[in-house]
Amino acid sequence: MAEDPYLYPGTETLRNKFGERDKDVLKGLDYAAAMDRQRQLESGEADVPRTYDAQHLHAIHQHLFQDVYEWAGQPRPDVTVFKGVPGGFAPPNLIDRYLTDAAEAISSADWASMDQEQFAQQAAKVFAYVNQAHPYREGNGRATKLFMQHVSELSPYELDYTRIPDKVWNQRSMLSGPDIGQYEPVPEMMQPVFEVLAKERPDGPARTMLSPELQKARQAAGLDPGEVAGRNANPQSSTGAGTDKPKTSRGRGTQSPERG
């Protein structure tokens, strides 16, 4: 089996900016640093362009893990993440395809007019594609949860991750993946989860989806392409911090510690 280039040789510890060789110590450092960066995004102290595509997700991951990994925000180019699952997540050559499908699911939906059931259905679809992409060697769950919170800003709902126990989130996330040898994920497994997570925003959608042309124009002007007049200056968020723990089984109905 080829050596994982993301690990220090002879260890199970990811190469990191701290130079830490103990994986358990690194875990604590990783979570502390990423949580501080997450607070910046949630408070409005820092922000990323709301393009609702792969670049948006990469920007979130880069911000969260910039203090921990040199490759923060960069998709894994030559490593397939298995996490204890025979089929694994998307191989490197399919990451872009899954993220493109997720972006199309976002841009084609009329988020602002959705009721809670419609929102849950579409959010589950977006999540299933992003989760199966699993673009990064570590930190996929936390970046994906924050990305989904940004997507929810387009709708009359926000996501309260405290409403679902980790065990349920982990199991349903695992079950949303495609069967071995198949491409299409199974978002229906996550729809009930998003129905529980969704709660109404008092003032309706916090943002609006802009055309690619307008996004580029605003980017050229140095503006956030997702920002609109009247947006909430400091929208409340209860984004949870997921983890990328190994899954134990891909079979339907099997418990798993995966947090997306």
UniProtKB/TrEMBL annotation:
What PROSITE patterns does the annotation carry? FIDO
Polar residues bias (residue ranges): 251-260
Cite the entry's keywords alphabetically: ATP-binding, Nucleotide-binding, Nucleotidyltransferase, Transferase
Residue intervals of the Fido domain: 52-199
Reactions catalysed according to its record: L-tyrosyl-[protein] + ATP = O-(5'-adenylyl)-L-tyrosyl-[protein] + diphosphate; L-threonyl-[protein] + ATP = 3-O-(5'-adenylyl)-L-threonyl-[protein] + diphosphate
Top EC class of this enzyme = transferase
Name the Gene Ontology biological process terms.
Answer: regulation of cell division
Kindly provide the name given to this protein in its UniProt entry. protein adenylyltransferase
